[in-house]
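Supplementary Methods, section 5.1.

A reviewer requested that the exact input to the structure prediction be made available. We therefore reproduce it here, unchanged from the version used in the analyses.
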Amino acid sequence: MKRLITAESVTEGHPDKLADRVSDAILDAVLAQDPQGRVACETLVTEGLVIVGGEIAAAAHIEPAVLARRAVRDVGYVKAEYGLSFDACAVATLIRQQSPDIAQAVRRNAADDPYDRIGAGDQGIMFGYASTETPERMPLPITLAHKLARRLAEVRKEGSLLYLRPDGKTQVTVEYEDGRPIRVHTVLLAAQHAPETALDELRRDLYELVVEPVLDGWLDNKTDVLVNTSGRFVVGGPASDTGMTGRKIIVDTYGGRGSHGGGAFSGKDPTKVDRSGSYMARYAAVNVVAAGLASACEVQVSYAIGQAHPLALNVDTHGTGQVPPSALDRAVRTVFDFRPAAIIETLDMRRPIYEPLSCYGHFGRLDLSPTWEEPNRVDALRAAAGVR
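The structure derived from this sequence is encoded token-by-token as follows.
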């Protein structure tokens, strides 16, 4: 049976991704000074203005406005004509202390077990997913969409296409046959450009410098490549759309494959299980797949605020499991400790590592070698599942 599956990505200049970047830049700055710092930072970007808000509790001195301007500059908003420029925009800072109710829920100092001394910083449901579909153990559509978006930024920043501007989106539709990807059916690019750029030139350049290098081997003579289908994309970024932290959660994860609990990642320290629980679920799924116990795996975990132990933990291999479901469930529970303090220690999450993750996905990022992508629990999983 054949079916079509689509995923999208966006460039680092997309207004929502710019907001994510500012939030994670502030998180990293706090963790660099105080690894125990707690952060829940939200950013809004619009024409000529960046607003940073949220709650921080940390022994750190940071300058949110300086960090925000640096992030805006690094993305490429360096001219007033872009609608947002790092040296001319206004930055409003509305940061306050973390709620004492949340703080006391997270701190559980009376517990005997040190891993019980941190409660979940929020309630919620988190999911992790992995499959054998790509070397990154990610679905192919989102992997290709991210690579196209990164390439759009690369050709702009390296000067190959000087008329490109920071905003952009990509979308890839992959054709599957009997569950296997066989070809790219459709490619969609939306690239912000200078007003004098001819559409024919743009389409030719992007096909040669972006589409062909990234999708080599997946294209055929029936693949539709669509570029700037609106015909013109001059006004973009925060000048055309307000951006906010946490509005690209499907882009950040698996492109719609599997499930999503609804929580965003950027701007949140690892006591927030929206982030740490999702990363740990990915870590478990990666190791299940790497161990050969399934060719696809989804891990679901849920929490109550202030409680260390998850309320529920479920493993679903979508019919691809190589051991009985009960054996796999037991193995995952044995090998992985989903209490927030254990997650933070296992994945070494109190480091300033988050800003680079704010665009092009939090998972499958082999370029950054994150701890949650390491298949280092394979032997333990196989033993716990009774596989020799």
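The domain at 2-9+140-236 is CATH 3.30.300.10 (GMP Synthetase; Chain A, domain 3). These observations are discussed further in the main text.
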